[in-house]
């Protein structure tokens, strides 16, 4: 990391203030070339910025100097708080290139922080999730991870495996010495307890991943059951075309909602019936596929119509059954053995209760967990592997094989935090970041 990098840390476009960050061994020289003498560390100083080659004044800016290792990246770093005009930003960027710096790649600042030991890989992923957070619950989960909740949990497990490995190695190396009785069995017992903790962590119904990625809720029903009107009412805007003509919706129409802090994609689908043409056949096929993929299905019936067989097939446990158009007829007491939730998308009756029920259902599936949850498939894969290696201690015939199983479990957990070789995943992790972070 011999290069000095810079990037705009604030949003692109015209603004009152733009923040430009620098990091690397040449930061002090680049800063001095533009702003003169370095300001006191971590104190803002108002300076005229000049081009190092032409001496042209580029801006009057606040300059902050963060000598390493007490900086975000662990390197010498700086911030320039500029006026946010595009010409100012472009001029200062050109001057920094002339002073020997280069534009940063996406995620390069945080990657340097990781490589310099300022944070672990799970914390880096938490920062990426924090930047991308759409809802309050996503923000809370990402912030906990960025502040090291997962690193603490997995680091504690790694420490325990390391201690078990030391005891197992002692049993191997000093088998003829006067070691405590039952040392080998004690290692297996402790490994089994740890495996149970990891299994409980894995058995979380994917809550953390669902919250991070958002839930899919599909609306199913017969043509003219009021599905599109329901989607528009929940979205608070005209997202789908509404018509008295049956079969208006041919493709999936999606809107994004925030339900109790959980991001939800609500999908209106084609009406379920015997298709009249090949376009409707495809629309119905997509509707069924979306329902099969969904985390929650809203099965909608019209209160003024008899339930149809196609939609009744989707009345099952875990499905939320709605009786729409209660402004035209009262909701039946039961549809397919389930009491439906009465609602009128046209008048708004029952919508508050529906929103509350949806918030309850989505929170149950992806609400903020009491403990730090798994948030990425790679975490789940590594922990599953670690648990599998710990299970090997129950059947391994030799102490040397039990020690190797412990080493393999330790490596698997180490890949999550980045404490062992993870070069293959670094580009994928930091490629998700925006430039400037």
UniProtKB/TrEMBL annotation:
Compartments where found: Cytoplasm
GO biological process, one term: tRNA methylation
Source taxon at top rank: Bacteria
Cellular component GO terms, alphabetical: cytoplasm
Residues that bind (6S)-5-formyl-5,6,7,8-tetrahydrofolate: 21, 79, 118, 437
Residue positions binding GTP: 224-229, 243-249, 268-271, 344-346
Binding residues for Mg(2+): 228, 249
UniProt entry keywords in alphabetical sequence: Cytoplasm, GTP-binding, Hydrolase, Magnesium, Metal-binding, Nucleotide-binding, Potassium, tRNA processing
GO MF entries: GTP binding; GTPase activity; metal ion binding
Cofactor: K(+)
InterPro entries listed in its UniProt record: G_TrmE (IPR031168), GTP-bd (IPR006073), GTP-bd_TrmE_N (IPR018948), GTPase_MnmE (IPR004520), MnmE_dom2 (IPR027368), MnmE_helical (IPR025867), P-loop_NTPase (IPR027417), Small_GTP-bd (IPR005225)
Cofactor note: Binds 1 potassium ion per subunit.
Predominant place of localization: cytoplasm
Protein task: Exhibits a very high intrinsic GTPase hydrolysis rate. Involved in the addition of a carboxymethylaminomethyl (cmnm) group at the wobble position (U34) of certain tRNAs, forming tRNA-cmnm(5)s(2)U34.
Subunit and interaction comment: Homodimer. Heterotetramer of two MnmE and two MnmG subunits.
Similarity comment: Belongs to the TRAFAC class TrmE-Era-EngA-EngB-Septin-like GTPase superfamily. TrmE GTPase family.
Name assigned to this protein: tRNA modification GTPase MnmE
Organism encoding this protein: Roseicella aerolata
Gene it is expressed from: mnmE
């Amino acid at each position: 990391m011999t290069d000095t990098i810079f990037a705009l840390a604030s949003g692109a476009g015209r603004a009152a203030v733009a923040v430009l960050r620098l990091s690397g061994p040449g930061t002090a020289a680049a800063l001095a070339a533009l702003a003169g003498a370095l300001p006191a560390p971590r104190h803002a100083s108002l300076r005229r910025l000049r081009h190092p080659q032409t001496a042209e004044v580029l801006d009057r800016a606040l300059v902050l100097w963060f000598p390493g290792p007490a900086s975000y990246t662990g390197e010498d770093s700086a911030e320039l708080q500029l006026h946010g005009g595009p010409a100012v930003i472009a001029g200062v960027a050109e001057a920094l290139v002339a002073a020997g710096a280069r534009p940063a790649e996406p995620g390069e600042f945080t990657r340097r922080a990781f490589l310099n030991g300022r944070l672990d890989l799970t914390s880096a992923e938490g920062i990426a999730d924090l930047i991308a957070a759409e809802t309050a619950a996503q923000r809370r989960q990402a912030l906990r991870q960025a502040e090291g909740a997962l690193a603490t949990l997995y680091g504690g497990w790694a420490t325990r495996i390391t201690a078990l490995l030391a005891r197992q190695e002692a049993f191997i190396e000093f088998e003829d010495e006067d070691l405590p009785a039952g040392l080998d069995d004690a290692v297996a017992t402790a490994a089994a307890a740890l495996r149970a903790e990891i299994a409980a962590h894995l058995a979380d119904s994917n809550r953390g991943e669902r919250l991070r990625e958002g839930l899919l809720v599909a609306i199913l029903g017969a043509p003219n059951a009021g599905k599109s009107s329901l989607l528009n009412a929940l979205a608070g805007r005209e997202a789908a075309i509404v018509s008295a003509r049956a079969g208006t919706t041919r493709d999936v129409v999606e809107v994004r909602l925030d339900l109790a802090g959980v991001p939800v994609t609500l999908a209106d689908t084609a009406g379920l019936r015997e298709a009249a043409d090949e376009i409707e056949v495809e629309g119905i096929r997509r509707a069924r596929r979306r329902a099969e993929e969904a985390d929650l299905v809203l099965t909608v019936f019209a209160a003024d119509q008899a339930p149809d067989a196609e939609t009744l097939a989707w009345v099952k446990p875990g499905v939320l059954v709605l009786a729409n158009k209660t402004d035209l007829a009262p909701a039946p007491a039961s549809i397919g053995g389930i009491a439906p939730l009465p609602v009128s998308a046209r008048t708004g009756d029952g919508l508050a209760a529906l929103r509350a029920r949806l918030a309850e259902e989505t929170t149950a599936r992806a609400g903020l967990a009491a403990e730090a949850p798994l948030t990425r498939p790679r975490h789940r894969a590594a922990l599953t592997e670690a648990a599998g290696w710990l299970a090997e201690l129950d059947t391994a015939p030799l102490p040397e094989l039990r020690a190797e199983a412990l080493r393999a479990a330790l490596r698997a957990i180490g890949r999550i935090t980045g404490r062992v070789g993870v070069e293959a995943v670094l580009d994928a992790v930091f490629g998700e970041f925006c430039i400037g972070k």
